[in-house]
Amino acid sequence: MLQYKAVIMSLVALTLLGGCDTSEPDPGKQTSVKIDFMEHEQYVKPYPTRLIVTNKFMRFDDGEGSTSFILFNRDTDTIYSVNDDDRTVMSLKSQEVELDPPMELELEERNLGTLDDAPQIQGMTPMHYQFFANGEVCYDVVAVKGLMPDVVNAMQAFKAILANDSKVTFNNIPADLHDACNMSMSTFAAGRHLKHGFPIQEWSVDGDGRTLVDYTEDYEPDPALFELPEDYRHFSVQDMRTGKVTGGGH
């Protein structure tokens, strides 16, 4: 679990960076924002990532100059994974997949309230939530209700596509590897941690997590950031699973 003091320090930094804007968020405002995170994984040194969101696209990458990235086209509900090393572009299209979990999932959440000494962000108070599956703690989130609501919508749509795709291959997982937390967070209740607002801090029981470092609203990204390289090999996830894709992307 990420340390409490680290959460508070990140909140203080965000307050200083964000200024003292206490105006109400405008849900109809055109989205154009750059968000910087620090990612945490077990046995790996924390590393920075970047998220750029507009009304049409959402792009995940490792920051300025990244040539490998994930691009979500919000208009077509399609996710693209661009791999510069293999010179490939793999696409994943939104689909509805009906699948019941192999076991009963009892999902709970707890509002743990505000963090002691946590400052407000744009006049809004961060709240700490904890999510459970079958009595086990799965995920913690410190969220700000009303902060960048369209970004949250984009994240939820992105999670829904990945969750439906995970249902396609779910039955390939051996029964002895079924885990209530993993199943709920990745497949059968994915995105539930986003229901309370933008997550400025989140972490799982295994230590993986993400911390918001900074964000810039009214950001003007280079349009080229949302273009797919035409000279790369393009294929879909379905093509790969059915054996239509062989060899490298060169």
Comma- or semicolon-separated keywords:
single chain; 250 residues; alpha+beta; outer membrane lipoprotein receptor (LolB), chain A; 12-stranded mixed beta sheet; 12 strands; disordered N terminus
The CATH superfamily is known as Lipoprotein localisation LolA/LolB/LppX
- Major sheet attributes: 12 strands, mixed
The proportion of residues forming helix, as a percent range, comes to 10-25%
Ranges where pLDDT stays below 50 over 5 or more residues in a row are 1-5, 16-23
Gyration radius (Cα, Å) is 19 Å
Listing every helix as H and every strand as E from the N terminus to the C terminus, the arrangement reads HEEEEEEEEEHHEEEH
**Annotated CATH architecture:** Clam
Report the β-strand fraction as a percent range: 25-35%
First-last Cα distance: 42 Å
Number of helices: 4
Number of strands: 12
Name of the CATH class: Mainly Beta
User: Tell me, what's the shape?
Assistant: globular
Query: Total domains, how many?
Result: 1
Tell me the structural class: alpha+beta
- Average pLDDT across residues? 88
* Spatial order of strands in the largest sheet: 7-8-9-10-11-1-2-3-4-5-6-12
Briefly say what this structure is:
The protein is an alpha+beta fold and about 250 residues long.
Walkthrough of the structure:
By secondary structure, the protein is of the alpha+beta class. It has one domain: Clam (outer membrane lipoprotein receptor (LolB), chain A). The protein contains four helices and twelve strands; from the N terminus they run H-E-E-E-E-E-E-E-E-E-H-H-E-E-E-H. Mean pLDDT is 88; it is low at 1-5 and 16-23.
